[in-house]
Every structure is written in structure tokens, then in C-alpha cells.
């Protein structure tokens, strides 16, 4: 039996879910972002206890099929951008369609309706956050960052970065360095 959990987007969240399942004596299999495989069926009392425990931790047990699908979309985007070693070589639309076995137009329209932002904007926002993170870590240059996140060129990454943040990636990097220098000089 699969359970779907909203706001479960990090390793810390997985650990919380694991702890709560163990407290309730529930046998589980795979715990992924947004979902967990339970090895037995849940009694209504167990379901309610788990729901309350997860709510206390800022997580939410979901039952609505559309809400579950939207959460799956978010988790796939987060995993694809923030946790995967390599960005998928195929288009985002094809990747999401294959992962979720749904037409991209349906996924996009459902997502837009529920989230108030279109799916492509959501993906771009996450990519730009990842670019900021990689710039701050200073382990990769812009060419490597653009390749890692599936941009066709550094100029495409730069124009998208500027459109979202109002800054060029180079200026963003300079701000980080100025801030570091200011702290070191105190």
C-alpha cells in the first residue's frame, strides 16, 4: 500500500516519516520523496495517528488523487534539479510525462490550476535556485553549471537568470564575494 505525503521534499522529511512509522509499529518498504510503501494495510486508527504525527512535523498525509499527482510533479522536479547527478537529456515535458504516465498538457494544466504558476515557470524557478546554490558553492564555472542543468548555452542560462533575479550570474557571484570580503574584514 502506498501513502502519499505532502511537503516531503528532503532527506530530513524522510527521516521524520521513518521515525513516525516505526513509532506506530508499521512495516514499510521504500521511502521516497512524497511517498512511502507500507507493507500492510492501515487500520483507520493507525491512519489517524500517522496523519496527526505527520501534521505536527509539518507534513500532510494526502488522499485526493489530483493533489497526489501535483505533489508527485513537484517531487519529480525537485529530485530532477536538486538531487539528481545528471539532468535528463530529454525535454522536461517528455521526462515528466514518462515518469508519471500522463500527457504533459494534462499535467501542466492541472499543476497551473492548483499551484497558481505554470509548470515551466516552476521548473525554471527551481533551476535558478540551483544555479544560485552552485554559484555560491563556487565549485563549478557557468559553463559547467549550464551543462549540468540542461541549458543549451551559458547565454541562455544567463538571460533566464537575469529575467528571474534581475542580476547577471557574474554580478550575483560578485555580490557573494563582496559579502565574504566584508565579513572577513570585520
CATH-level-4 superfamily name of the largest domain = Homeodomain-like
Give the strand order of the largest sheet, numbering strands 1, 2, ... along the chain: 2-3-1-4
- Structural domains: how many: 2
The Cα radius of gyration reads 20 Å
Secondary structure tally, helices: 9
In the CATH hierarchy, the architecture of the largest domain is: Orthogonal Bundle
In terms of per-residue confidence, which ranges show pLDDT below 50 for 5 or more consecutive residues? Answer: none
Give helix and strand order, one letter per element, not per position: EHEEHEHHHHHHH
Distance between the termini: 57 Å
Reported for the largest beta sheet, the result is:
4 strands, antiparallel
Mean pLDDT over all positions: 89
Please provide a written account of the structure.
This protein has 186 residues and is an alpha+beta fold. The chain folds into two domains: 1-63, Alpha-Beta Plaits; 65-186, Homeodomain-like (Arc Repressor Mutant, subunit A), CATH 1.10.10.60. It contains nine helices and four strands. It has helices spanning 11-23, 44-56, 65-83, 92-100, 104-115, 119-137, 142-148, 154-165, 169-184, and strands at residues 2-6, 28-32, 35-38, 60-62. Strands 2-3-1-4 form a four-stranded antiparallel β-sheet, sandwiched between helices. Helix 3 (65-83) packs across helix 5 (104-115), helix 3 (65-83) runs parallel beside helix 6 and helix 6 packs across helix 9. The longest helix is centred in the middle third of the chain and has 19 residues, at 65-83. The N and C termini lie far apart (57 Å). The model has no long low-confidence stretch (mean pLDDT 89).
Amino acid at each position: 500500500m502506498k501513502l502519499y505525503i505532502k511537503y516531503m521534499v528532503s532527506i530530513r522529511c524522510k527521516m521524520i516519516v521513518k521515525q513516525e512509522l516505526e513509532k506506530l509499529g508499521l512495516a514499510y518498504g521504500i521511502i521516497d520523496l512524497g511517498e512511502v510503501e507500507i507493507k500492510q494495510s492501515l487500520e483507520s486508527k493507525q491512519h489517524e495517528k500517522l496523519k496527526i504525527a505527520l501534521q505536527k512535523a509539518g507534513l500532510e498525509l494526502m488522499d485526493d488523487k489530483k493533489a497526489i499527482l501535483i505533489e508527485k510533479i513537484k517531487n519529480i522536479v525537485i529530485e530532477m534539479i536538486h538531487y539528481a547527478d545528471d539532468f535528463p537529456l530529454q525535454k522536461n515535458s517528455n521526462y515528466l510525462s514518462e515518469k508519471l504516465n500522463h500527457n504533459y498538457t494534462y499535467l501542466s494544466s492541472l499543476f497551473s490550476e492548483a499551484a497558481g504558476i505554470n509548470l515551466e515557470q516552476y521548473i525554471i524557478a527551481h533551476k535558478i535556485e540551483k544555479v544560485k546554490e552552485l554559484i555560491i558553492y563556487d565549485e563549478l564555472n557557468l559553463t559547467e553549471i549550464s551543462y549540468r542543468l540542461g541549458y543549451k548555452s551559458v547565454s541562455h542560462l544567463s538571460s533566464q537568470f537575469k529575467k528571474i533575479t534581475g542580476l547577471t550570474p557574474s554580478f550575483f557571484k560578485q555580490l557573494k564575494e563582496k559579502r565574504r570580503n566584508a565579513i572577513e574584514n570585520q
